């Protein structure tokens, strides 16, 4: 039996190599470089018109702008993931499981002849899913060796 950890790593690696993940990586890279440029280059350049000494009004403007920037960033970081995963959160709070993507005919949808011909009860798990679950199942015996 293969190691479940190796299977998990293979599944994660397959997800990382997907086109959607590559696109998300490129988008996050552009945002990271863009925000870094704004924070460390453009933002300080905007303070140059004030000269060496800032007036009280100019200093107050920059403080308020910094506080608003921080509050908006904090709200986005807090609420965007919640908004993005609202469907999953709703399913969890209402105790509704995710709908199965596999369609298995129920015994009531088959005629009695079809049901007997298949020799199965309509709600059994298909063989390919059983094989997949068997691959992901943990080993029956777990031995932990503790060095002395």
Description:
This protein is mainly α and 148 residues long. Among the domains are: 1-45; 52-97. Helix content is 64%, strand content 0%. It has six helices and no strands. The protein has helices spanning 4-16, 19-45, 56-84, 86-93, 112-118, 127-136. The longest helix has 29 residues, at 56-84. It starts with a helix and ends in a 12-residue tail after the last helix.
* Oligomerization state: single chain
Biggest sheet features: none
- How many strands appear in the DSSP assignment? 0
Please tell me the overall pLDDT: 74
What is the tally of helical segments?
A: 6
Proportion of residues in extended strands: under 5%
**H-E order:** HHHHHH
Poorly predicted runs: none
Structural class: mainly alpha
Give the N-to-C terminal Cα separation.
Answer: 29 Å
The portion of residues assigned to helices is: 55-70%
- Gyration radius (Cα, Å) is 28 Å
TL;DR of this structure?
The protein has 148 residues and is mainly α. It is 64% helix and 0% strand. Among the domains are: 1-45; 52-97.
Secondary structure elements and pairings:
Layout: H1 4-16, H2 19-45, H3 56-84, H4 86-93, H5 112-118, H6 127-136
List keywords for this structure.
elongated; 64% helix; 148 residues; mainly alpha
